[in-house]
C-alpha cells in the first residue's frame, strides 16, 4: 500500500511535470492545487531535491521545478525514495533485502515465490511508467470524464 507521503510526492511530481519548462512553482501553489499540507509538502520536496529529481530557486519567481525531463523520472524511483521497498516481503526486495525472521528456508517458501512474481509484475509497470505518463493518463481521464458528464447533462 502506498503511504500518504508517497501519494503526495506523486501528486506533487505530476503538477511539476505539467509545469515543466514553465519555471519554478511555489510550494503554496502545489499545496493548494493538490490539497497537501504545506509543511508536509516542504519536507517531501526537499527529499526529492536531495535525491536529484528536483531543483529550487530562491527569491522572487522562485520555487521548485523538475531537474530532469518528466519522461525520465520513473514511478519506481519515487516510490522507493518515499516509501521504501516495492516488494511485499523483505526477502524479495531488490534494494532493501532482509531475510524474513519466521522463514525456515527461502528456497522452499511458497509465500516468497508468490511475492517474487508480484514484485516482478509491479516493477514491470512502475519502472516503465514515468511521471509524464502518469500526468498524461490523468489528463486523458479528466477529459473523458468531462465528455461523459456533458453527454449525460445534454439528455
From TrEMBL:
Q: Which InterPro entries match?
A: Tscrpt_reg_Rrf2, WH-like_DNA-bd_sf, WH_DNA-bd_sf
Could you tell me the keywords of this UniProt record? Answer: DNA-binding
Report any Pfam family annotated for this entry. Rrf2
Gene3D superfamilies with a match to the protein in the record:
Winged helix-like DNA-binding domain superfamily/Winged helix DNA-binding domain
Question: Could you state a single Gene Ontology molecular function term?
Answer: DNA binding
TM helices/strands, residue ranges: none
Gene Ontology cellular-component terms for this entry are:
cytosol
Name of the protein in question? BadM/Rrf2 family transcriptional regulator
